[in-house]
Protein 1
Amino acid sequence: MHQGFETKRVIIGPDGFKKVVDITVPKRVNLPTGHIDSTSLAQIPPGGSFVANDVEYYVFPCDTFDYVMHYLKRHTQIVYPKDGAYILMRLDISPGKRVGEAGTGSGAFTLYLSMAVGNEGKVYTYEQREEFYKLAEKNIKGFSKFDNVVTHNKSILDGIEERDLDAFFLDIREPEEAIPEIRKALKPAGHLGILVPTTNQVAETLKALEEHKFYVSEVVEILARQYKPVPERLRPDDRMIGHTAYMIFGRKIGE
Amino acid sequence: MHQGFETKRVIIGPDGFKKVVDITVPKRVNLPTGHIDSTSLAQIPPGGSFVANDVEYYVFPCDTFDYVMHYLKRHTQIVYPKDGAYILMRLDISPGKRVGEAGTGSGAFTLYLSMAVGNEGKVYTYEQREEFYKLAEKNIKGFSKFDNVVTHNKSILDGIEERDLDAFFLDIREPEEAIPEIRKALKPAGHLGILVPTTNQVAETLKALEEHKFYVSEVVEILARQYKPVPERLRPDDRMIGHTAYMIFGRKIGE
Amino acid sequence: MHQGFETKRVIIGPDGFKKVVDITVPKRVNLPTGHIDSTSLAQIPPGGSFVANDVEYYVFPCDTFDYVMHYLKRHTQIVYPKDGAYILMRLDISPGKRVGEAGTGSGAFTLYLSMAVGNEGKVYTYEQREEFYKLAEKNIKGFSKFDNVVTHNKSILDGIEERDLDAFFLDIREPEEAIPEIRKALKPAGHLGILVPTTNQVAETLKALEEHKFYVSEVVEILARQYKPVPERLRPDDRMIGHTAYMIFGRKIGE
Amino acid sequence: MHQGFETKRVIIGPDGFKKVVDITVPKRVNLPTGHIDSTSLAQIPPGGSFVANDVEYYVFPCDTFDYVMHYLKRHTQIVYPKDGAYILMRLDISPGKRVGEAGTGSGAFTLYLSMAVGNEGKVYTYEQREEFYKLAEKNIKGFSKFDNVVTHNKSILDGIEERDLDAFFLDIREPEEAIPEIRKALKPAGHLGILVPTTNQVAETLKALEEHKFYVSEVVEILARQYKPVPERLRPDDRMIGHTAYMIFGRKIGE
């Protein structure tokens, strides 16, 4: 078992300030009103608070959501929690499942998978670009509770090494090219989830899924609309994320 | 370990036809074009198909999503997968966590929780109305892979028996009344998720959370927008679910 | 000036009941709780009410919105008010403008245009299918206050007869084919609005607009989300219109 | 007739650059790549273009949308075109109508109204804060084609001077207080539209409408979702306006 998740704290301050800090690395953490040393931070109990220049800050153990949104280093567009959560549900991920993924990207969804399949499960993830591969490894090890991720530094177009996988998640530029390889790697009736940003990619992917015998269960986008948490003047935020990606879900038909 | 999930099959037919069948119960299953016996259905391999009156039907092992949406008996409004998935993410649920819930309702979210915390985790759920309590028990046992749910037939206003819970999910009519009890049951910095259908309830709940020292991390609604899976004429469905519920997330502050 | 709009009444009843009636046609109007004769209806003052079997009904002069949504005969998908309103704004329609349209369809948007450009303005509308052409004429004359619509029973691919139009609204299956003709009919810097249901059509239309020198100012969809008007339990409707159409707006570049 | 609208030009440049310029005021207009004098700009025909440092810019006569979004001076939150367009439709505004409004704010919706009711119509608008009143007058005269707006520098709580209005639009902080005055000013069955930013205000307003005998036809919010106009990679913008306001529509019941 990794311990990365135990070494991160999230600091909550005024006006939506949020910062994730690794308390094992001695450093000065700048705040909107002053600063705090990471060693002092480590002394604060979970849910406790401290004061800097008359302003109170709360400190929590960092959770997966905050780690991904506020700490994880990104070289690529990550899979947002709103999308990642729905993909986990649609791929029927639960403890013990064996799941494939390509590309790894910055490792955000790999981390969600790792946290969901637990010690009995396994995640096999493929990333062909070496710098992403290395970054993702670091990002995953920096938080996941479970030692269950196998990272491959190769393209899945060159072959998926595993067989009989419960589910596969695909997030590459031309997903239609990878469908035949994924078909080989999935067990019968295995779940497939694909994420693409454009409508043109959705159309191309749907054609490939039909050709390679996948049942398409859903094409969907998820919108998260946040509200200002003010009980006397309740209203949505002025601005919201308008688009991250379309998601396509299906299951393998036939042998 | 339960085996409920192994005994359900989902049949996929033309024009969006979808039906979940328990193959251990001998019965005739009606289809848009004819019928099939559940015993014949049991012989079809995962991802296989059969033909009824010249129309092909596909058969898959039932997943959690299809079980909740197309099989589970409902006496109450259930927590939809789009919302349930996001709640699991925001409550930071993973294998091994100990989670509380009230009310159980028809048990849909209890089932998501059970499937997410696995054999090492535990779900404690409270439901005061006896008929829902019994229905939920049946719904959960009919599918969950894990024997990890403790059901209480009582109101949480009469006290939560557990302590030091990692997270709590609240889905009752007047959530503001239950906040003090939940505060006692949660561990320091524990996660709280609340689901309510109306804006008035959001406002009341926010007031109670402030009073009882919870940090509110997010007030949000999740919209899932489905597309017709036709590559040459890609477009969203004509109608969509416009509203299920608002969700409020927070963490316990102080001891 | 037509008088069609003066002869229609809308009856509002319990549980969202709404019915538009022509009071010049003697008939019995069925209600959820009984009925009323159109001649009796004609006697009720604007904003007045009547009682049928102990239930109160309100009567208003019919407005454009109710006429289009609850009276106008449809052979085609109409332009919804939410979209029509935005198109009027984006095409900069005001009294006195000369505007072209194709196809007329059932005439809903033609009616919005007629009501917006007034006595000093003019609307030229093209519809090649004779049955739609006739239906639309009847629909428009049945309500518009202004005698300002010229209907053509022909395809615009065979030529637009007018020149120097302020704006053009295009709602046909393959809009990309009509762009060159519209270019000839519009005045310099004239406004163009196009409505299409699929993403594939948006892509094709954008290509044609670039080729034929139109500046694209916006590609947009409009979502209207309704709420239940209950002050103590304020919340959106359970279901909503998920999609009607995408809209593309532009202006003619060069001479 | 005013001529304000004839003196404004909109310049369209690369990366979404858009600027509205008054060509009667000699000045140097800064661009992303250089500049142009407003006097040179005045020579460019509608839909024409000019080049600044190898980059092409297009020039159009300014329309109402661009004037409101890119020129009009704001001291207040304005009514966005997406909302304004729908309000015009729901209030059944057409040439010749007599319409009231409060408060005037920066005059954006007053301008929409002025442009919609034309020479035969009339707009009566109330604004109690003198600096907004003056700003709005300037904003309206700077563009509207029609001399049809009467501005009052007073609160409508002190009385509306007009009677028998076709419609009224209300955009003040506590709309519930103004309902009785509006009731007096509207003709029988007259249309009322109210805009409020928070859910609490929606609830308060609904109570007042019921008390003062208005039929509520709709409570709604309008979302405009923009797409990047790239045919090969069609997708919505990353960010969108998440909320402007809720709108409530109704009609006066009884005398």
Protein 2
Amino acid sequence: MHKKTLEDIGEKELINRLGKFMPKNQISDDCALIKTKNENLLVNTDCLVENVHFNDINICPMDLGWKAVVSNISDLLSSGSKKTIGITISLVLPPRTEWIWVEELYKGINKALKEYGGMILGGDCSKGDDKVISITAFGIQGELELRRNACKPGEIILTTGIHGLSKLGFLMQNKINFDNQFSLNERLIIKSIEHFCRPRVYPNFLNNLLKTRSNKKIKRIGCTDSSDGLFQALQDLAMASSCKAIIDYEKIPKDKDWPNGDKWDEYYFFGGEDYELVFSLPKKWAKNLSKLDKNINEIGFFTDGKPSIEFNDNKKNKILNNTTFKHF
Amino acid sequence: MHKKTLEDIGEKELINRLGKFMPKNQISDDCALIKTKNENLLVNTDCLVENVHFNDINICPMDLGWKAVVSNISDLLSSGSKKTIGITISLVLPPRTEWIWVEELYKGINKALKEYGGMILGGDCSKGDDKVISITAFGIQGELELRRNACKPGEIILTTGIHGLSKLGFLMQNKINFDNQFSLNERLIIKSIEHFCRPRVYPNFLNNLLKTRSNKKIKRIGCTDSSDGLFQALQDLAMASSCKAIIDYEKIPKDKDWPNGDKWDEYYFFGGEDYELVFSLPKKWAKNLSKLDKNINEIGFFTDGKPSIEFNDNKKNKILNNTTFKHF
């Protein structure tokens, strides 16, 4: 009898099965929580594998170091971390790796830590055939707990920025040809590559949330980041919070030169690695926040119903018949 | 010009160079320290790579899971962790990996956590060509700070148990032939394989240390574990504490059936993966502790001098002209 492999069972089922080995409260969120006497710590682990998440052609080691840190900090922020303490780094490197590659990687790591706070706490290093960079990041849980399962029907869905750019940058860096390549705006191309190689996060987001909170009793907010794409983020929120997301396609913030068409919608919703926050707030709070921070956009709302995503314009729902990034 | 690779510069120089990217206090110890308002956390990361640290022939996935956890807990204990909070797991697995392999790995992980405390807090999973298991473990710093740099001249060097067994187990599991194989005691073979596949640690060690402390003012103890071999542990302590280790070969605890000879000395001092603690204490404390715990043995002492290791019997010093485990 053929024993089932990871390829057979697929990523979703793998996560589901691994979840059974973990305490229930730790499964559905971006970060794990460690309770200490006075403060709670947020912990996140992210793993980048050569020829799966990066290669020598599409990103230079300094940008890779930056991005590895930022993807972890994005998860901390999306759980409500008020301060990044630091990271540990587990590196697997082939012996033929040039020292300068490692040096550049660490320069990028420290650049991101200088920008967003935190320091290298320690790590481990081993030889291996392919490069692997696994980073575990630690932050301090702030006053607001941001959790995937805290969205509520009636709340407004918001996002901190534009999606799809990182995917376009990835395609450009991998020199993948596509039909209307030559009609693409140069500014958009440069911006997209910047988003792919040097993504940014918004440490000020938490302060702005606190500043605009009208009801001090609210301590939990539904939130995740769009590292696996906007669609996946919305789905994760809907599933964890047991409610239905209704998205207004017209309200979705796009780059002014972003082309129209099915393919471009696919990049936008399924591209991933944009590290924008996707979250929901009561109406008044949402209005105050998007007034204070012009990068934040309302894109829809949650309602009662089967955990799912729908566009209010039914014609747009075909976009959703798509597959997300497959890990296996 | 040939750019220097990691193979060219070697492991020691690599660690030295990476150290420059880290805050100074975090370089020389088994764990990193995270200060929170009331408690300090200890954090350790260890990375196991297929065909470097393990393969499908020499260890089954359940034992591998156990061992991956234990090697991390050993580092926490050797820094004075009074309680293991939990671990995060970063997994790289080829898509052809059978689910049952992953399930067995997690069973071994949870068996070790059940035995020694702690839970799975979270993690990440990605595909890749070779299996990589990177675990980050968290513990709470106890009253006694165990640190590599806290040994003092005049202190007695002790170890919690017998070395070399794991190396012998490794050779047996890899079916490596050696001359006097047939003269080996069967009990010793079984015990060695057990040590290699299912290493154990001593969570009671810290309590026994506290129980036998005669001077309550002493808060820091020189300590590390012998995961990279007894010699490496002694060298790490000597280097970090700037003192000289004098070892009494006759006092070193060996299995009663451990053969004599240069090769067996090499396995004993350089074998690694025994996860015994190697530490130093003031004379009186050392005496009290080895009286209370019969597995603990005095094996020498630290003295003023250039950081180094010497046997008091000069004839034995040839053992030390050897190389340790090379990571690159």
